Amino acid sequence: MINNKNNQQITIGGAIVFRDNRRKRQFLLVKTKEDGDWEIPKVIVRKGESSVRSVIRLTGEQGGMTTRVLEEVGRTTGMTILNGKSIPQKYYYYIMLQRGGPSELIGFAEFKWLEYMEAVRKVTLKKEKDMFKLAREVLKQWEKTHKIKQY
Fold first, then answer.
1. Given this model, what pLDDT does residue 148 score?
2. How many alpha carbons fall within 13 Å on the CB side of residue 141?
3. Contact at 8 Å (CB) between 49 and 128?
């Protein structure tokens, strides 16, 4: 979402999606372009849309899956260059459970489901590594309070 012209800011939702597959917990990583880096799926929040709604839209429209947002994991900031101007970005990351969907994801150049340590090693940005670590802690707490089986 880009706010008013004097105070431009782009808001981005990040989806740390996991599934339990054959008694192993796996996390989704994507490449948005063929020669890109592995990353957490992200989407620009549309005007009038919440960051939570944006990640649900991302996983539904681009991922073709149904998900459940469990908790917000964390927030970070960054900068990008848009039309020669430096624009601040605010990121909201959410831990999400994949409830259903195809084994093939559309809307990404590539995707992989990886176990936690491999996923952390694959992402290149430090802030994404940090978000994975926070997500693991948030998920552990969520599972305790909701009495869900941990893998």
1. 64
2. 11
3. no
pLDDT at residue 115 above 80? yes
CA torsion through residues 32, 33, 34, 37, sign? negative
pLDDT at 123 over 50: yes
Residue 67's beta-bridge partner residues? Answer: 98
State the DSSP H helix or E strand holding residue 133, giving kind and residue range, or none if neither: helix 126-146
CB neighbour list of residue 26: distance below 8 Å, 6 or more residues apart: 18, 19, 20, 113, 114, 115
pLDDT at 3: 45
The fraction of the chain above a pLDDT of 90, given in percent, is 66
Q: Which two tokens stand for residue 32?
A: 């948005």
- Give the residues across from 97 on adjacent strands: 18, 68
Task: Write out the DSSP string of 51-111.
Answer: HHHHHHHIIIIIT--EEEEEEEEEEEEEEEEETTEEEEEEEEEEEEEEEE--SS-SSSSEE
How long, in residues, is the chain? 151
